[in-house]
Amino acid sequence: MTDTRRRRRTDHPFKELFDIDVLREELTALARQVLDNGKAGREIELRGQMARRLKLAYQQGHKTAERWLMEEGSGRRCAERLSRLQDEIIALVHELAVKFLYPSDNPSTAERMAIVAVGGYGRGLMAPGSDTDILFLLPYKQTAWGESVAEAILYVLWDMGLKVGHATRSVDECIRQARADMTIRTALLEARLLLGEKSLFEELTVRFDKEVVQGTAVEFVAAKLAEREDRLKRAGQSRYVVEPNVKDGKGGLRDLHTLFWIAKYVYRVHETRDLVAKGVFTPEEAVVFRRCEDFLWSVRCHLHFLAGKAEERLSFDLQREMAERLGYTAHPGLKDVERFMKHYFLVAKDVGDLTAIVSAALEERHDKPVPRLNRVIARLRRSPRRALKESTDFIVDNDRINVADASAFGRDPVNLIRIFHLAGKHGLAFHPDAMRLATRSLKLIDQRVRENPEANKLFLEILCSRETPEIVLRRMNETGVLGRFIPEFGRVVAMMQFNMYHSYTVDEHLIRAIGVLGQIERGDRPDLGLANELVQQIKNRTLLYVAVFLHDIAKGRPEDHSIAGARVARKLCPRFGLSPVDTDTVAWLIEQHLTMSTIAQSRDLSDRKTIENFASVVQNLERMKLLLILTTADIRAVGPGVWNNWKSQLLRTLYYETEPVITGGFSESNRNQRVARAQAEFRAAMADWPPEEIEAYLSRHYQTYWLQTDREQQAEHARFIRAAEAEGRALATTAHTDAARGVTELTVFAPDHPKLLAVIAGACASAGAHIVDAQISTTTDGRALDTISLTRAFEQDSDELRRTERIAAAIQKSLAGEIRLPEIVAKRIPKRPRAFTVEPEVTLNNSWSNRHTVVEVSGLDRPGLLYGLTQTLSRLNLNIASAHIATFGERAVDVFYVTDLMGAKIIGAARHSAIRRALLQVLDADDEANAA
């Protein structure tokens, strides 16, 4: 690209696309042609023809802007060009309106108007799908001429398909409403004159500054920060959610806009670089602001172009193509999309740092309240500056820890760890100046500091604190100290995992897991089950905290992260001061951190072989206690709705089934005692039932049911079955919604037979319902009690429940032979491109059970998958003794315990190969359909 061409784009971004003078002449000729026979009744026709021609130019402009964005990569320049294009369109429409439709040769004083861009459009930056916010500014009240011109402009813009926000106000009205409404005040803060009476616009800006802005900085800052808090509650408080909102999410463009609004209002600046002269930013920080802004504008513009609309959420199905557009490539252990998203989260972190810097400057001016460590914004009593007795290098300044002077970290680099230790110990918030200095001092953390015994002792105390380890670790991470002190952690900072299972980046997940572990230890979360009891029994809490902190430390490497993580632990634990025995335990916990969850959710816990195999892995009771607590913290920290009572009960059952095997106790006796205890609790819960009815009901369930079903669900099942039998229903269903998990649970009570699960799965698929979990039970009198968890499809519970009624009707009709599910399912399941690929796997194993062949199927989840798998197993003449259905984001892991028709295991390599091929065809079917 020549320098001449680059300069021409900057001066007039769309000159190459169309000559504005040529377009003006074309539209002028069009206007004269339409109005040649007089204006009466021809205005609408002219507006329509103008809109069609301008829409074509507008679309061509967007295509050129997208092409130049792909070539140059500058998101801010793209946003400037799109804004400039909008300016030219509005100016041209206005010119034609006042020349041909509503000319005023000798306008009165009242017939003056300024057209002003406000809000985001006022900044001169627009994404492809941005709204166009316009103010028609008048000197006094509206006139017929002004109303006609404004309507003509708006109708043309609307007919072009643009989203236009507009207001018509006098200067007095603008000032009055800006005083009363913070949204209007913010919009006028960025007002920009497009065309019309310059003196009118200048009057507005002078009066706005004098009558609205002056003396109201504290009010404006408080309102903007409160508005930000509300926005983040809606978009998600963490900046590390894996499908971030580019505009409104934490660390997104709106945060940058809020910073600039506050800076412009408080410091009366017009450009970010002006904040350097005010002492708010250093020149380097101003560069960071501009770099973050350009990157986020690039992402947002690409996002709108890709989606063809104003899409702000960077969803999984768009992330991969975004990575390709932006030129990211895969590295060993990291996909191209994961590298792109890591860059995104690092930028979001930089935005957070800039927010802290501006906040510090505002606090120095007393324009912002001082936060505590827990970040609740509230005006607090400001305590005087005082020294900390533990170190003369730090002081307490307004309830926040700060450095005594700028050389505190240079004198002793261990202070970069010590400041966080003291903050956690005394419950102090962090002074932004100290955090800013810490970030600038990261190079002081070298190998000598990393190996310093005191530094490691202080870090271990931070990690294992009984107070606020999660908050302190997060601040260490945000400043960069944590990743610098532990380089292995630095590798996973801002690293996303391109899957639907994890809601947060790896570093955020690890820090949240420490927070969950603290909740378990304090007993804050009764729903975390057995972990609450076991945590009080463990011998060494330190190694548990270390294991939780390191369990995913090796994500993003080419090899299995559990094995690699154990190797990292063997390197780090001695540095932290752990003994060789404790180091071995931590390494084992990390290597096995997925084992207990996998077995609990995908194996038959009533099968003796399952328990024996698990016991051979854990070997001793202390390790099993630690593993259960780690597993609980890990699952709970994955994201909202992942942990539930069913998983809690499965872990409890696995633990208690394995305990006597490890300790050498009598397993059956132990099991009988636990069953008796569970049944006693059931009797207490159903005290309103006659004793003889309770006893009869207890005998209908196998022992496994009482051990694997939580008490509340047992009572619900009992009342459901009682009501169904009182009504004489052979097939009965009930449903309820679970907002926390985002699912609807459908429970089916019906006569058991080999194809029942396939029928239920087919009925769900025929209704477009997606199965994510299933609890399969059988009673002693030959009835099936199956609970199926379906992804929620509707906002309203009533709509969800109507869907389950349709599913129940389909089950009934299928069992009665009134409908054929295969044909219905084939028509119902949508074929659509997917963001994810999962390598399909089918494993058959005869050593995991003494009585059954275990078939484990893993692949990309999709509607109708379970139906296809169960249908195939039935067609292969296999009896399904039990099924264990689990979904981990986009990955389905379904395990079936099967026998042949004679009740024997499946023997023979050829038979195994045939089963594997048939199931792989089911997993691959959707890929083939999409390829076609």
UniProtKB/TrEMBL annotation:
What keyword terms does UniProt attach to this protein?
A: Hydrolase, Magnesium, Multifunctional enzyme, Nucleotidyltransferase, Repeat, Transferase
Q: Give the matching SUPFAM superfamilies.
A: ACT-like, Nucleotidyltransferase, Nucleotidyltransferase substrate binding subunit/domain, Poly A polymerase C-terminal region-like
Activity control, as annotated, is:
Uridylyltransferase (UTase) activity is inhibited by glutamine, while glutamine activates uridylyl-removing (UR) activity.
Q: Which reactions fall under this protein's catalytic activity?
A: [protein-PII]-L-tyrosine + UTP = [protein-PII]-uridylyl-L-tyrosine + diphosphate; [protein-PII]-uridylyl-L-tyrosine + H2O = [protein-PII]-L-tyrosine + UMP + H(+)
**Recorded superkingdom:** Bacteria
Task: Show the GO MF annotations.
Answer: [protein-PII] uridylyltransferase activity; phosphoric diester hydrolase activity
Q: What is its EC number?
A: 2.7.7.59, 3.1.4.-
Per UniProt, residues of the HD domain are 506-627
Matching InterPro entries, A to Z? ACT-like_dom_sf, ACT_dom, HD/PDEase_dom, HD_domain, NT_sf, PII_UdlTrfase/GS_AdlTrfase, UTase/UR
Domain topic, free-text comment:
Has four distinct domains: an N-terminal nucleotidyltransferase (NT) domain responsible for UTase activity, a central HD domain that encodes UR activity, and two C-terminal ACT domains that seem to have a role in glutamine sensing.
Q: What does this protein do?
A: Modifies, by uridylylation and deuridylylation, the PII regulatory proteins (GlnB and homologs), in response to the nitrogen status of the cell that GlnD senses through the glutamine level. Under low glutamine levels, catalyzes the conversion of the PII proteins and UTP to PII-UMP and PPi, while under higher glutamine levels, GlnD hydrolyzes PII-UMP to PII and UMP (deuridylylation). Thus, controls uridylylation state and activity of the PII proteins, and plays an important role in the regulation of nitrogen assimilation and metabolism.
Q: What is this protein called?
A: Bifunctional uridylyltransferase/uridylyl-removing enzyme
Gene coding for it? glnD
